[in-house]
């Protein structure tokens, strides 16, 4: 996708905020517990290589990604730290992962059986590093039955030149919920299944950001630190307090490209869903749903000169319109996410209006929006 370098629309990434969010969490961990930075989905829209560099400087020991492609991008950028892919990778790509010492999760013996000939065909490769995924209640990936897990272990032990068990893990469905009943059920099932192993692997891990922040006793010896890296409370505001202040790292700014006065009854945008109630000043902002600023945000607001200005009319693919308190010249700053004067719009504010979570808003900001670091950490 082409980046809009020649339009006034920028996602600003505060590297110092990311540094602090990681440093504070590293400082809380037990001595032998490692933090792996979750940088999947282009680091939740913040820029994978940027965030990986800053997280490493802050004390991250490794990285988690969703795709093998993301792991390979980190290797291509000369990151030599351990990398765990969190999603199932098709077995035909097992040799690619092994060659780059990238760890993969498995959920079945069938996957191992399919990967075996792929690895046997290249005997010079190092062993494939495996993390045994346990589905203790998330319902996504992982072994659910004791015997299936034991069968997988037996298969791995029978092929020591191709596979090594590096880790075992699960993912909690409700770690960000004040009601911890279901969470405790998952903990009990995980502990039971781990006890089936004759020896514990190098990494035993259950903790995403929410678990590490609010259930640190469960951390094991590795945490998968994700959304909190970016200064976002994993619960939204369901659990408002965190062990340390999270510093939001992302803001989104633009400028007015046009301002005009309209009169009572004049229509704005597709479908004429808004008509001026009187003489009004309307400003145009060069961002639209193709940038991830979605149509459902009609009626929300942005900030201009410290004023909340309503989004009027339907958001277009590349532009939207706002009602201004007075005439402003083209080039006046518009804050979509961030601060203007004593006013602030957070990702959570946008998410609540959109009836979703702030993770989704951040990830929806498309590559067409240029990214720029502020408060940079030395490269």
UniProtKB/TrEMBL annotation:
It catalyses: L-alanine = D-alanine. Its EC number is 5.1.1.1. Substrate binds at residues 140, 317. The keyword Signal does not apply. One of its GO terms (cellular component) is cytosol. SUPFAM superfamilies: Alanine racemase C-terminal domain-like (SSF50621), PLP-binding barrel (SSF51419). It comes from the Bacteria. Its cofactor is pyridoxal 5'-phosphate. Keywords: Isomerase, Pyridoxal phosphate. It is an enzyme of class 5 (isomerase). Pathway: Amino-acid biosynthesis; D-alanine biosynthesis; D-alanine from L-alanine: step 1/1. The modification N6-(pyridoxal phosphate)lysine is found at residue 40. PROSITE patterns: ALANINE_RACEMASE. GO terms for molecular function: alanine racemase activity; pyridoxal phosphate binding. SMART domains: Ala_racemase_C. The active site is at 40 (proton acceptor), 270 (proton acceptor). Catalyzes the interconversion of L-alanine and D-alanine. May also act on other amino acids. Belongs to the alanine racemase family. This is Alanine racemase. The lineage of its organism: Bacteria, Bacillati, Bacillota, Bacilli, Lactobacillales.
């Amino acid at each position: 996708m082409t980046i809009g370098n020649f339009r006034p629309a920028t996602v600003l990434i505060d590297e110092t905020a990311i540094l602090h969010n990681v440093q504070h969490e590293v400082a809380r961990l037990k001595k032998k517990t490692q933090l792996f930075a979750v940088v999947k989905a282009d680091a939740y829209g913040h820029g994978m290589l940027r965030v990986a560099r800053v997280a490493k400087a802050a004390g991250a020991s490794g990285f988690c990604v969703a795709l093998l492609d993301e792991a390979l991008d980190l290797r291509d950028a000369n990151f030599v730290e351990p990398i765990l892919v969190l999603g199932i990778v098709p077995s035909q790509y097992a040799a690619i992962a092994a060659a780059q010492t990238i760890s993969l999760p498995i959920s079945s013996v069938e996957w191992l059986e399919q990967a075996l000939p792929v690895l046997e065909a290249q005997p010079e490769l190092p062993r494939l590093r495996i993390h045994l995924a346990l589905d203790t209640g998330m319902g996504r990936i992982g072994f659910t039955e004791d015997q299936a897990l034991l069968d997988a272990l037996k298969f791995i032990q029978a092929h020591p030149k191709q596979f090594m068990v590096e880790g075992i893990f699960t993912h909690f469905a409700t770690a960000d919920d004040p009601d911890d009943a279901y969470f405790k059920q998952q903990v009990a099932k995980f502990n039971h299944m781990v006890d089936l192993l004759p020896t514990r692997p190098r990494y035993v891990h259950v903790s995403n950001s929410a678990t590490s922040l609010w259930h640190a006793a469960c951390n094991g010896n590795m945490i998968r630190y994700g959304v909190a890296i970016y200064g976002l409370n994993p619960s939204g505001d369901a659990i408002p307090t965190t062990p340390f202040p999270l510093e939001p790292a992302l803001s989104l700014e633009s400028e007015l490209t046009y301002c005009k006065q309209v009169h009572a009854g004049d229509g704005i945008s597709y479908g004429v869903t808004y008509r001026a109630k009187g003489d009004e000043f309307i400003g145009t902002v060069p961002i639209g749903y193709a940038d991830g600023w979605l149509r459902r945000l009609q009626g929300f607001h942005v900030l201009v000169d410290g004023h909340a200005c309503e989004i009027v009319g339907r958001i277009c693919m590349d532009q939207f319109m706002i009602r201004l308190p007075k005439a402003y010249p083209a080039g006046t700053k518009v804050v979509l996410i961030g601060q203007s004067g004593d006013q602030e719009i957070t990702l959570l504010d946008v998410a609540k209006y959109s009836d979703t979570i702030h993770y989704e808003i951040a990830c929806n900001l498309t590559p067409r929006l240029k990214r720029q670091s502020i408060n940079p950490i030395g490269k």
